[in-house]
Amino acid sequence: MPVAHTLEGPLSVDVLGRQDPELAEILLGELARQSTTLQLIAAENFTSPAVLAALGSPLANKYAEGYPGARHHGGCEIVDVAERIAVERAKALFGADHANVQSHSGSSAVLAAYAALLRPGDTVLAMGLPHGGHLTHGSPANFSGRWFDFVGYGVDPESGLIDHEQVRTLARTHRPKAIVCGSISYPRHIDYAAFREVADEVGAYLIADAAHPIGLVAGGAAPSPVPYADVVCATTHKVLRGPRGGMLLCGSELAERVDRAVFPFTQGGAQMHTIAAKAVAFGEAATPAFTAYAHQVVANARVLAQGLAAEGLAVTTGGTDTHLLTVDPAPLGVDGRTARGRLAAAGMVLDTCALPHPDVRGLRLGTAALTTQGMGEAETARIAVLFATALRDESAGRGVREEVRDLTGRFPPYPAQ
Ligand SMILES: *Cc1c(COP(=O)(O)O)cnc(C)c1O
């Protein structure tokens, strides 16, 4: 199948090419990079041409502070409909009473959740950053660590699983105002009921930061945090496959506080092109095709975990329930950073990450993007072999690079029409 070198239509890069060839070349270069290397970054995916069309639309021109029917600007009657559709689709998709689709990113959604429920100086219990917490879960370099008093729970160094006894003990000791569950690298389903129980025991709010698994939730391939958490924060661009952005879900009693926490407290004008693109993505996520996709993502991740384990890598928790896994390449004689470099040279793009054993950097991989390209278990099993080959022997990188080029050529993310 030929790879598209332009995105078709009146909003195509052809227009840019005539006006500004320098920038057009960068857009095409990035398309070529994404199309000829393997995107194993667990947080990435390929949005559909329909989502890209909404993002590149004149809705980008519109100022729309406020909410549908209550804007601070004129001329919002059409974009209001876009936002109402996005909200209704999100509520239906996740079975939530209320959805706010204005958050510019996952981090903005978390900031808004804290703003809705907390005051500066409050104590918050969240997964510690060395164990897989996000920057917004108390990093000193982030607003969260500066404005709140974070206490970190961890994972068991042997099993790699969340230590629920530790969560309970820390909650009883520190009496947090909120407990955050969610991670950038936890490969297993989160036991939301267990977190709810602890939150209830100490009178804390439960915030689920489901940035990673929310797309699996949409496709029925992971448990939903919506029945358990007071507020669910999420991104729309990871497994969910929408535009880069965030959202919040909550019950009707917190709806007004959450909305005010997003606008006017932490954000200004809503990005209506992104909100329209979110609506398109929610529409896609409600289809049987997306349900099949979400289950295939998990099936592929399991095959990848098995394959890497068979090649001798140490797979955290022994496998995965989700789209992501983390591995320690040390048994193959390389550390995480060296491994990332060798894999990049071989055309496999991924991140290093924290591992349950402190001070060891591992690798985090995900299958959301390659599954969107149409790759299945056979291709994923082959990727595990190529992965280990590139790690074991630096000189094998060239051959692996050629096979990656061939594989991605057979599964183009944006096939030419
Ligand atoms: C990705 C992620 C975020 C932040 O998303 P951005 O859009 O990059 O701000 C927040 N929390 C968790 C757990 C994430 O995985």
TrEMBL record:
Main location: cytoplasm
Entry binding sites for (6S)-5,6,7,8-tetrahydrofolate: 129, 133-135, 253
Keywords associated with the record: Amino-acid biosynthesis, Cytoplasm, One-carbon metabolism, Pyridoxal phosphate, Transferase
Sites annotated Plays an important role in substrate specificity: 237
Subcellular location: Cytoplasm
Record-linked InterPro entries: PyrdxlP-dep_Trfase, PyrdxlP-dep_Trfase_major, PyrdxlP-dep_Trfase_small, Ser_HO-MeTrfase, Ser_HO-MeTrfase-like, SHMT-like_dom
Bilayer-spanning residue ranges: none
Pfam families associated with the record: SHMT
Endpoints of the signal sequence: none
Cofactor(s) the record lists: pyridoxal 5'-phosphate
GO MF entries: glycine hydroxymethyltransferase activity
Serine hydroxymethyltransferase-like domain: residues covered: 18-385
Subunit structure comment from the entry: Homodimer.
Family: Belongs to the SHMT family.
Function: Catalyzes the reversible interconversion of serine and glycine with tetrahydrofolate (THF) serving as the one-carbon carrier. This reaction serves as the major source of one-carbon groups required for the biosynthesis of purines, thymidylate, methionine, and other important biomolecules. Also exhibits THF-independent aldolase activity toward beta-hydroxyamino acids, producing glycine and aldehydes, via a retro-aldol mechanism.
Name the UniProt record assigns to this protein: Serine hydroxymethyltransferase
Lineage of source species: Bacteria, Bacillati, Actinomycetota, Actinomycetes, Kitasatosporales
